[in-house]
Amino acid sequence: MLRYTILGTKVMFAPSKILVRTLFESPILRNNSCKTYTFNDIKHLIENPLSDKILVDVREPEEHLEYAIPTSVNIPVNTAPGALGLLAEEFQKMFNFGKPETSKELVFYCKSGTRAKAAEELARSYGYQNTGIYQGSVTDWLKKQSHKLSSKN
């Protein structure tokens, strides 16, 4: 097995496989825990909005148009995975709202939580260290608060 260190990352080459292990000194790993939000936390956030927290729907625009949790913005992780890495002007043109500052807390949700976790990890790679996930996501929201979902149609 061949071993190299490239930009602080240990890279080990094995026959037909490349294994990459990020060192624990990485700023992403130093603070790699994100907050987990429950239905009640999200409900409280919607009823008492905070300027330093942004609820981010990472589903596709069609899904967001069908229904969305109130106050959320849509940054689709599948079709725009690099969105948070865009320059502010490019982000504004693409999404028609301002790029969140890295100091803001981004609280991600999707349909069931899988895309939210992926988006949270991407956000960290772009310098957003204050992140959270509503793991129940829209599925949980629909069960508990469907009469208050905002329709974007």
UniProtKB/TrEMBL annotation:
Q: Specify the Rhodanese domain's residue ranges.
A: 49-150
Pfam families for the chain? Rhodanese
Domain of life of the native organism: Eukaryota
Q: Which SMART domains match?
A: RHOD
**GO MF terms on file?**
thiosulfate-cyanide sulfurtransferase activity
Organism name: Maudiozyma barnettii
Give coiled-coil spans as residue ranges.
Answer: none
Enumerate the InterPro entries for this protein. Answer: Rhodanese-like_dom, Rhodanese-like_dom_sf
Q: Could you tell me what this protein is called?
A: Similar to Saccharomyces cerevisiae YOR286W RDL2 Protein with rhodanese activity
Gene Ontology CC entries for this record: mitochondrion
Lineage of the species this protein comes from: Eukaryota, Fungi, Dikarya, Ascomycota, Saccharomycotina
